Amino acid sequence: MAFDPKEQLANIAVVASETSHLTQAFRAWLESHWQRPTYCPDWQAVDAVAHLATGGEFYAQVIAAGRRGTPQLPWGASDAAGARAGRAAASKKLVEEGPTALLAGFEQGAARLQEVLESLREEDLARVAWHPRGLVPIGLWIGMRLNELVIHGWDIRQPHEAHAGLSPTALPAMLMILPEMQAQFLEQRLADGLDGIHVLRAGVTSWAFIVRDKTVTYQAQAPTVFDTCVSTDPESFILLTMGRANAGAKRHSGALTLAGNTEKGQRLCETLFRTF
Is the pTM here over 0.85, yes or no? Predict the structure, then answer.
C-alpha cells in the first residue's frame, strides 16, 4: 500500500496531542468515573484506560524491535497467545493497583512510545513490526495508535454524553489514516464478489480501492469511473469502519448512500463495517 510517509510522520504530533488531552481528562475524573461503563461490552472506564496504558508499552516494544530489523513479540512472548497473555496480565495489574498507578502507567507507556515515534525517520516506515495479525509496516502503527486513543476515548464518553463525537482536533488526521485502516480490514476479510473499483467519499475527501483476484490496491485519487461508491460524512465513516455505528441504520437515515452497483456496494459495506 503506497501511503504517504510524510503524512504518517505528521501524525506523530497528533498522537502526542491526543495523549495530552486524555491525560488531562483522566486527571480530572472523580473516583466514581473509573467504574463507569463504556461503549465496549463488559468494560468499565478503568479497563479502557488500562488497555490504552498497556498499548503504549506494547507499541513501543514492537516498533523499536521492528526498526532494528528484528521484529519481536512484546513482553518476551514466544507466540501470539503469550503476547496477549502478557498484555492482559499487565492490564490486570494496573487495574488492581488503582487509579493513581493506572494513570501513572498510562503516562509512562505513552511517554515511552512517544519517544520511539519521534525518533522515526521516513526510511524506517517501510520496516515491519510484529502484530497478532502479522507483520505490519511501522508507518501504519502511528495511525493505529492514534486510532486507539481516539476511538477508546469515544468509547469512554459515549454512554455518558448525549451527543458524543470524535475528538475534533484529531478528526482531520483520523480521516487521513482511515484508508490505512480500511486497507488492512479489506485484506483480512476479502471474499469473492468484490472485484472492481470501489470509491469511498467522506464529505469532500475521496479515495478508492481496486480489488482484483483477492488483491487490494489503494488509490489516493478516486477515479470518476467506478463499480461502487460509498458516501457518508467523515465522522460516520470512521465510526462505521471501527464498528461503532451501524451501516444499515446510516443508510436508512440517508446519512450513507451507495452509487453504482448497489448490490456490490452493500457487500463492500458488510466487509468493511462490522458492528463491534
Answer: yes
